[in-house]
Amino acid sequence: MDDTSTTVERFRALIVELADKAGYDLTSGAGGRKQLAAATGMSQSAVSRMVDGITLPHPNQFEALARALHTDVWTLLITAGVVSATTSPKHPNQDVRSQSEPIRPLTPELAADAWGIHDPSIRSMLIANIEHARRLQDELGNSGGARARG
Protein backbone atom coordinates (compact mmCIF):
# COMPACT_ATOMS: atom_id res chain seq x y z
CA MET A 1 0.00 0.00 0.00
CA ASP A 2 1.54 3.36 -0.98
CA ASP A 3 1.45 6.60 1.04
CA THR A 4 -1.52 7.95 -0.92
CA SER A 5 -3.76 4.95 -0.27
CA THR A 6 -2.61 4.90 3.36
CA THR A 7 -3.63 8.54 3.74
CA VAL A 8 -6.98 7.94 2.03
CA GLU A 9 -7.65 4.91 4.21
CA ARG A 10 -6.69 6.77 7.38
CA PHE A 11 -8.96 9.64 6.35
CA ARG A 12 -11.81 7.25 5.52
CA ALA A 13 -11.52 5.61 8.95
CA LEU A 14 -11.65 9.00 10.68
CA ILE A 15 -14.68 10.12 8.65
CA VAL A 16 -16.57 6.89 9.36
CA GLU A 17 -15.83 7.19 13.09
CA LEU A 18 -16.81 10.86 13.28
CA ALA A 19 -19.91 10.36 11.13
CA ASP A 20 -21.09 7.55 13.38
CA LYS A 21 -20.64 9.77 16.47
CA ALA A 22 -22.50 12.60 14.71
CA GLY A 23 -25.43 10.32 13.89
CA TYR A 24 -24.83 9.66 10.19
CA ASP A 25 -25.36 6.02 9.19
CA LEU A 26 -22.97 5.71 6.26
CA THR A 27 -23.99 2.16 5.43
CA SER A 28 -24.89 2.04 1.76
CA GLY A 29 -28.61 2.72 1.34
CA ALA A 30 -29.13 3.94 4.93
CA GLY A 31 -29.45 7.62 3.96
CA GLY A 32 -26.50 8.89 5.97
CA ARG A 33 -24.38 9.58 2.92
CA LYS A 34 -27.15 11.68 1.41
CA GLN A 35 -27.60 13.56 4.73
CA LEU A 36 -23.85 14.17 5.01
CA ALA A 37 -23.78 15.43 1.42
CA ALA A 38 -26.60 17.85 2.18
CA ALA A 39 -24.95 19.02 5.39
CA THR A 40 -21.60 19.69 3.69
CA GLY A 41 -22.63 20.84 0.23
CA MET A 42 -20.68 17.93 -1.27
CA SER A 43 -22.19 15.76 -3.95
CA GLN A 44 -23.48 12.40 -2.82
CA SER A 45 -21.00 10.68 -5.11
CA ALA A 46 -18.10 12.67 -3.57
CA VAL A 47 -19.24 11.61 -0.10
CA SER A 48 -19.48 7.98 -1.24
CA ARG A 49 -15.99 8.05 -2.79
CA MET A 50 -14.61 9.53 0.45
CA VAL A 51 -16.45 7.03 2.66
CA ASP A 52 -15.40 4.15 0.43
CA GLY A 53 -11.76 5.20 0.77
CA ILE A 54 -11.30 6.08 -2.89
CA THR A 55 -10.64 9.83 -2.74
CA LEU A 56 -10.14 12.71 -0.37
CA PRO A 57 -12.49 15.68 -0.41
CA HIS A 58 -11.55 18.89 -2.20
CA PRO A 59 -9.75 21.30 0.17
CA ASN A 60 -12.61 23.80 0.04
CA GLN A 61 -14.91 21.12 1.51
CA PHE A 62 -12.95 20.51 4.73
CA GLU A 63 -14.55 23.28 6.79
CA ALA A 64 -18.12 22.20 6.00
CA LEU A 65 -17.16 18.59 6.64
CA ALA A 66 -15.64 19.53 10.01
CA ARG A 67 -18.82 21.40 11.00
CA ALA A 68 -21.08 18.51 9.98
CA LEU A 69 -18.94 16.00 11.87
CA HIS A 70 -18.46 18.17 14.97
CA THR A 71 -14.69 18.24 14.76
CA ASP A 72 -12.05 20.85 14.09
CA VAL A 73 -10.84 21.38 10.56
CA TRP A 74 -7.21 20.81 11.63
CA THR A 75 -7.95 17.19 12.50
CA LEU A 76 -9.25 16.63 8.98
CA LEU A 77 -6.46 18.58 7.26
CA ILE A 78 -3.73 16.75 9.18
CA THR A 79 -5.28 13.31 8.67
CA ALA A 80 -5.66 14.01 4.94
CA GLY A 81 -2.03 15.07 4.73
CA VAL A 82 -2.96 18.55 3.52
CA VAL A 83 -0.95 20.15 6.33
CA SER A 84 1.55 18.76 8.79
CA ALA A 85 0.75 18.34 12.47
CA THR A 86 3.26 21.08 13.29
CA THR A 87 1.14 23.56 11.31
CA SER A 88 -1.84 23.09 13.61
CA PRO A 89 -2.63 25.62 16.34
CA LYS A 90 -2.38 22.63 18.68
CA HIS A 91 1.34 22.58 17.86
CA PRO A 92 2.15 26.24 17.21
CA ASN A 93 5.07 27.23 15.06
CA GLN A 94 7.93 28.65 17.09
CA ASP A 95 7.85 31.82 14.99
CA VAL A 96 4.28 32.58 16.00
CA ARG A 97 3.81 34.60 19.17
CA SER A 98 1.97 32.91 22.01
CA GLN A 99 -1.47 34.27 22.85
CA SER A 100 -0.31 34.66 26.43
CA GLU A 101 2.31 37.22 25.38
CA PRO A 102 1.14 40.82 25.40
CA ILE A 103 0.46 42.19 21.94
CA ARG A 104 2.59 45.20 21.16
CA PRO A 105 1.47 47.43 18.32
CA LEU A 106 3.74 47.03 15.33
CA THR A 107 5.59 50.26 14.70
CA PRO A 108 7.89 51.07 11.78
CA GLU A 109 10.78 50.95 14.25
CA LEU A 110 9.83 47.47 15.46
CA ALA A 111 9.48 46.32 11.85
CA ALA A 112 12.97 47.62 11.09
CA ASP A 113 14.28 45.81 14.17
CA ALA A 114 12.52 42.57 13.21
CA TRP A 115 14.00 42.72 9.72
CA GLY A 116 17.46 43.46 11.08
CA ILE A 117 17.70 46.90 9.44
CA HIS A 118 20.38 48.65 11.50
CA ASP A 119 22.09 51.02 9.07
CA PRO A 120 20.84 54.50 10.07
CA SER A 121 20.24 55.78 6.53
CA ILE A 122 18.45 52.63 5.35
CA ARG A 123 16.46 52.48 8.57
CA SER A 124 15.45 56.14 8.20
CA MET A 125 14.37 55.55 4.59
CA LEU A 126 12.34 52.46 5.53
CA ILE A 127 10.56 54.21 8.41
CA ALA A 128 9.81 57.27 6.26
CA ASN A 129 8.36 55.06 3.50
CA ILE A 130 6.19 53.15 5.95
CA GLU A 131 4.89 56.38 7.47
CA HIS A 132 4.22 57.80 3.99
CA ALA A 133 2.33 54.63 3.02
CA ARG A 134 0.23 54.86 6.19
CA ARG A 135 -0.65 58.51 5.42
CA LEU A 136 -1.67 57.55 1.88
CA GLN A 137 -3.79 54.71 3.23
CA ASP A 138 -5.49 57.11 5.67
CA GLU A 139 -6.22 59.53 2.81
CA LEU A 140 -7.72 56.72 0.74
CA GLY A 141 -9.86 55.66 3.67
CA ASN A 142 -11.11 59.20 4.28
CA SER A 143 -11.93 59.92 0.65
CA GLY A 144 -14.03 56.81 0.01
CA GLY A 145 -11.38 55.08 -2.10
CA ALA A 146 -10.26 58.02 -4.24
CA ARG A 147 -6.66 57.78 -5.32
CA ALA A 148 -4.33 59.73 -3.00
CA ARG A 149 -1.20 61.55 -4.13
CA GLY A 150 1.93 61.94 -2.05
Description:
The protein is mainly α. About 55% of the residues lie in helices and about 0% in strands. The radius of gyration is 24 Å and the shape is elongated.
Outline the fold blueprint.
Elements (H helix, E strand, L loop, with lengths): L2 H19 L10 H9 L3 H8 L10 H7 L4 H7 L28 H7 L5 H23 L8
Helix pairs in contact: 2-3, 4-5
Name the descriptors.
single chain, 150 residues, mainly alpha, 53% helix, 0% strand
Low-confidence stretches: none
**What coarse outline follows from CA principal-axis ratios?**
elongated
Gyration radius, rounded: 24 Å
Question: How many helical elements?
Answer: 7
Instruction: Give the distance, in angstroms, between the N- and C-terminal Cα atoms.
Output: 62 Å
Following the backbone from N to C, one meets helices and strands in this order, namely HHHHHHH
Mean pLDDT: 80
Q: In summary, what is this structure?
A:
By secondary structure, the protein is mainly alpha-helical. It has seven helices and no strands. The N and C termini lie far apart (62 Å).
